[in-house]
């Protein structure tokens, strides 16, 4: 069944499935700029802010899960390079980094963020439009989607899960962060989203909150094995350097949390 779906994904279906998301994000960046931010600041803010600190948290989360200099990494919904900027010094010439996003503007910013730092490391970015991951079957070690499935429709999340399973090598992992209704802050986001008038919902970047078990059901239907499921408020990330997050210093040795729940999946 999943294989049939993968074949269906590989066919053409009129407008590229992700093209609407791209224009929503361009508008989202524009809104930040109209608040008085410079173009670069707006591109950094558009992915959620705390550019430096969250990037370090994302990197440390992956280091804790085994990211190393040889990892072949796909950063799905890489945005303006929050993670790319931090993994430039981790991934070596035997590894690789591929950043994918629907927003050309954010990818341009990501390129600027890492410019001059990549030496001979295979670092690439690509604009995508169709819920496909442009990699060979069984070729990559790790695919991450930080704060991406929170902004897309469930059906598109499923398409990406099927694609992720295809491109990962056996034993490879996917890390996906998400908003989960079982923590109060995320439940509040859910209630706020409900305040958006129906006719405006398709015209802005949405924050989708998962009900407990929902994403887990999808990942298992796609064929992944769930290795870990960290709660949004669970302190599980060992920091490799101190970070200043929302005005609070977090020291090395104090485990940190991402603020989103995090599923760690394995292709068996
Ligand atoms: C909240 S930002 C997170 C960016 C990055 N992962 C990070 O943590 O800094 C969400 C990102 O998902 C991208 N995005 C939105 N819809 C997408 C889709 N259908 N496919 C791939 N990326 C998408 C957006 O352009 C944006 O860069």
Under CATH, the homologous superfamily reads Vaccinia Virus protein VP39
Point out poorly predicted stretches.
8-15
Q: What is the number of beta strands? A: 10
Please give the CATH architecture. 3-Layer(aba) Sandwich
List the helices and strands and how they pair.
Layout: H1 2-9, H2 19-34, H3 39-45, H4 51-64, E1 72-76, H5 84-87, E2 96-101, H6 104-114, E3 123-127, E4 140-145, H7 154-167, E5 168-180, H8 184-193, E6 209-210, H9 214-222, E7 225-230, E8 243-245, E9 248-250, E10 261-266
Parallel strand pairs: 1-2, 1-4, 2-3, 4-5, 5-6
Antiparallel strand pairs: 5-10, 7-10, 8-9
The site of S-adenosylmethionine has 22 residues, from helix 2.
Structure summarized in a few sentences:
With 268 residues, this protein is an alpha/beta fold. The protein has helices at 2-9, 19-34, 39-45, 51-64, 84-87, 104-114, 154-167, 184-193, 214-222; strands at residues 72-76, 96-101, 123-127, 140-145, 168-180, 209-210, 225-230, 243-245, 248-250, 261-266.
Structure, described:
- The protein is of the alpha/beta class.
- The chain has one domain: Rossmann fold.
- It is 35% helix and 21% strand.
- The chain contains 9 helices and 10 strands.
- Strands 1, 2, 3, 4, 5, 6, 7 and 10 form an 8-stranded mixed beta sheet that branches.
- It starts with a helix and ends with a strand.
- About 3% of the residues have low confidence.
- The site of S-adenosylmethionine (SAM) has 22 residues, from helix 2.
